[in-house]
Amino acid sequence: MAISHNSKDSVQVNKKTPKTVLVTGSNRGIGLEFIKQYGEKEWDVIATCRNPDGAEALKTVAKDHSNIRIMAADITDNASIDHLSNQLDGEPIDILINNAAYLGPPEPQKFGKIDYKMFARSFEVNAIGPIRITEKLIDNIRSGEDKKVIFLGSAAGSIAQIAPPVTLYSYRASKAALHLAVHNFYHEMLPENVIVSLINPGLVDTRGFLELKPEDPIPEELSKMVPETLIRMIQEGKIPMITTYESVTNMLSYIDELTIETEPLFVNSDGTPMPW
Q: In whole angstroms, what is the distance from residue 174 CA to residue 102 CA?
């Protein structure tokens, strides 16, 4: 920040133009935490989600931060992303964080019970959607200073790490597809010095799992989202979970340090390598 004095000895403050970050799926969980932390860092924050009118938690955060803009964006809908692209035409974006994702309930993702409409939705949100919005906003990224595109991957999409219990066919397959597409995109962007990174945020508690004690019954709303065997392992401490604050704090630190030479492409939130 530069300070200059005019002839009347008044102080004139020239603030550097803030950088801009756009985060998808900002209405809850990891996306909302990204908005909070970038908002506190005084970035120009573009928070997107499918239904801004119903995003009460996001609106509460934005109310206290004039540097946060809420915009509608459904990454599964071409018209929605075209509209967002038109609204942001010519505006530089330093960092694009592709956070929006769809997990879906576990029962319809079991072999023998697979819901193929859900399977298709998983691919639309998790694999196709992030590429769709990135393709539409790539000129905004090119004109930004940082030129960083971040995709949130998942250990569940790591083929090398698949092990019993076998679960979540559609979610795992869609995340594996995203990983491949991002690897393609990484090589595509290297000649332009656009920085691409694929980050596994970790097993993050966005629903209140950490509040469960080993002897507590499993609430139905949690068992509808995650297989009971995994919930029991979380309760017993066999599968460590972290908070959204911990995950995003780690990721922000890693993203800050990213350069075009940073390797490997696929990492955990703390920057340690992830197997493909």
A: 10
Q: Is the peptide bond before 264 cis (omega within 30 degrees of 0)?
A: yes
Lowest mean pLDDT among 40-54, 182-196, 233-247, 261-275: 233-247
pLDDT digits (tens, 9 = 90+) for 96-141: 999 999 999 889 999 999 999 999 999 999 999 999 999 999 999 9
Give the total residue count for the chain.
Answer: 276
pTM over 0.85: yes
CA–CA distance from 32 to each of 58, 64, 187, 203, 254 (Å)? 7, 14, 30, 16, 18
Residue 222, number of CB atoms within 10 A of its CB: 15
Using CA atoms, how far apart are residues 80 and 72, in angstroms rounded to an integer?
8
Q: What six digits make up the tokens of 264? A: 């490997």
* Pairing assessment for the beta strands 11-14 and 2-5 based on DSSP bridges: antiparallel
